Fold Protein O-mannosyl-transferase TMTC4.
Amino acid sequence: MTELDADLDHIIPASVLPPFWAKLVVGFVSLVCFARSYDGDFVFDDSEAIINNKDLRADTPLGDLWHHDFWGSRLSSNTSHKSYRPLTVLTFSYYLSGGFHPMSFHVINILLHGGISVLMVDVFSVLFGGLQYTSKGRRLNLAPRSSLLAALLFAVHPVHTECVAGVVGRADLLGALFFLLSFLGYCKAFRETGNKEGTHSTFWVLLSILLGAVAMLCKEQGITVLGLNAVFDILVIGKLNVLEMVQKVLHKDKSLEKTGILRNGGLLFRMTLLASGGAGVLYMRWKIMGTGPPAFTEVDNPASFADGMLVRAINYNYYYSLNAWLLLCPWWLCFDWSMGCIPLIKSAGDWRVTAPVALWLCLIGLICQALCSEDSHRRRILTLGLGFLIIPFLPASNLFFRVGFVVAERVLYLPSAGYCMLLTFGFGALSKHTKKKKLVAAVVLGILFINMLRCMIRSGEWRNEEQLFRSALSVCPLNAKVHYNVGKNLADKGNQTAAIRYYREAVRLNPKYVHAMNNLGNILKERNELQEAEELLSLAVQIQPDFAAAWMNLGIVQNSLKRFEAAEQSYRTAIKHRRKYPDCYYNLGRLYADLNRHVDALNAWRNATVLKPEHSLAWNNMIILLDNTGNLAQAEAVGREALELIPNDHSLMFSLANVLGKSQKYKESEALFLKAIKAHPNAASYHGNLAVLYHRWGHLDLAKKHYEISLQLDPTALGTKENYGLLRRKLEQMQKKNV
C-alpha cells in the first residue's frame, strides 16, 4: 500500500476497499447524481444533432455516416464544422435507439457515465499505485483508498452535467470510454512480461492504438490518449527522472549515454509505434475532412480574431483560468459561454489578468514539485496528474487550431480526471501534515455531498429548455445567445410579447446577431408590424448576405406590403444561396398566385414538392389553384399523387374531395370527406363542404345534419349559413307539396 493511501485511512473506511464494493459504490453514486435527467427532453444542440439530422432517419443508408459530420452535413461542405464522429452518430441511429424517444437516449448517457466512473477506479489505481503484477498476471491495487476517493470525486463532479444530461454529450462519454480502455490496454502490454526491462506485448500496444483511433471517431480529443500512454510509459515503465536528465544535459555529463531510457530498445520501439500510429490516424482524419479546418466566426471565439498576438495570448490564458475555476468551483455553469458572455481583455490594466497569473503560479508550483521532489512516488503522481489534466485539453486550447467556442464544460470531462487525481493527492498531503484529520475527512465528505447536490440540481435544469436557458441568465447576462434561446423558447410556446423582449435584448447585446433579427422580424411580421420587420430583415441580409432564411422572410414581408417585384427578388436571392429550399419555392408560388401568374405558381409549388415530397401546403395550393381555374382533371391527378405520398394528410383529403364532388364522383368524394372528418372532427369547413356535396347529391337529410354541425363549430360562416338557408327553404317547399 502506498504512503498516500496510508494518509487517507481516516477518510475511506476499510469496508469499501475490496474492488467489487469500491466499484459498486462509485457506480451507484454516479447514477444517483444524474438520475434526474433520465426523462428529460431533447434540449439545445440535441435538436440539430438528432431530430434534424438527416443521417438518423430510418430511410438513410448507414454508409452516409462515414461521409458526413456530427450534424449531418457533408464534410466537403464549407459550412461543415468538421466534427467527424461517425461512431457516436451510429449510436443515435434510428435502428439502435428504437426511435427518437428522449428517455432512451438519456438513460444510455447516464449508464455510460456510470461505467466510465467505475473504470476510473482501475485507472486511478494504476496512476497512484503503479503497475505491479502477481505471478499469475493479476494486477495489484496498491492504492485502493486514493483510487476510490479520486473516482468518487470524478463521479460526482458537476461539470460533467452537460455531457451526461445533454444527449450530444454522448460524444464525450464514448470518447472517454475508449480513451480509458486504450490506457488500460496499454497497461496490459506489460502484464505477461513480468515487467522486465524493455519487454512488452506488442499486441496490446497495437490494440491500445486501435482503441485510441476508435476514441477519436467518437470525439476528436480521444486521440490524445496516445500522448498519455507515452508519458505513462516513460515515467512509470521507463522510470525516467526528468530533473536528473536535464541536469546531466546541462552539465554535459558523460553518464547520460549510459542512461537506461536511452538504451532501452523496447521503450523506443513503443514510442515509435505510438508516434507512427497517432500520425497515421491523424493523417487519415485530415484526408477525410477534405477541405481543411472548419471556418468559425468571431462570435464563436472572439479571442482568436483579436488584433495582436499578445491580446490573443492573454485571453487564451484567461480562458484556461476559467476552465480551471469550473473544475475547482463548479457552481456557475452555463450551456453556452459565447456571444459576449466573457468580454475580451484588451489591456494589461484589466483586473482579470490576475486570473491567468494565479493559474500559472499554481501550475509552475506543481511542475516544480513534479520535477524536483526527492520522493519518486510524489514526482510520478504529480506528473501523471498534470498529464491527465493537460493532454486531453490540448485540442481545445487554441494552440494548434482555432476552436468554435470560448469555454465548453463538455471538454473538461476527461481533464477533470487529472484534477481529481491532484485533489486527492492534496487531501493526502494535507492529512499527513495536520493533526485535525477528522476536519480533513469532514471537508472531503462535504465536497462530495455538495457536488452530488449540485449535480442533481443541474441535471434538473437540463431536463427542458426553459429551465436550461433561464438558468443561464444569472450566469451569463451579457450572452446574447442566452437571451435569444429564452426568446425562442417563449415564441415556441406562443408567448410572443415576452419573446420580443428577449430578442430585442439579444440584438442590443450583439447588434450583428442576424438570427435574433430574423426571429424578431418573423414575430413582428405575424403581428402585422411590417415596417419594423422589413427594417430588421433588411439589416440581417446586409450583415450576412448569404442568410437564405432572412431573404425568404424579407420576401414574405415585402409581399404583404404589396412590393411584389422586391419580394420576387428576395425569394430569388434566397434560392440562389440555398438551392434546395422548398419553403422558399412555396412562398414564391404564393406570390405568383397573387399576381395571377398561374403557370409560374404551379411550377414553383412543383419545385417545392420535388425537393420536399411531404410539403402538404404546396400540394394543397396546386390542387386548389387547378380547381379554381377549372382544371378539374389535372387537379384530381395532382391530388391523387399527393395522397400517395402523404396518405394521412386530412387537408389533402379535403381538397381532393372538393374536386371529386365537382366532377360528380360523389361516392369517392364522400369517402374522402368522412375520412378527413374522422382525422379532424372539429373542422367546420369539412362538415360544411360535405353538406354541400350531399346537397348536390340529393341526400338532403345528411346535408342538413352536416350544415348544422358546421354552424355549431363556426356560427360566423356566411357561406354555410346561406347554403343552409337554401336547403331549409327547399325542404319546406317539399313538405308543402307533400301536404
Q: What stands out?
A: The CA atoms of residues 11 and 617 lie 67 Å apart.
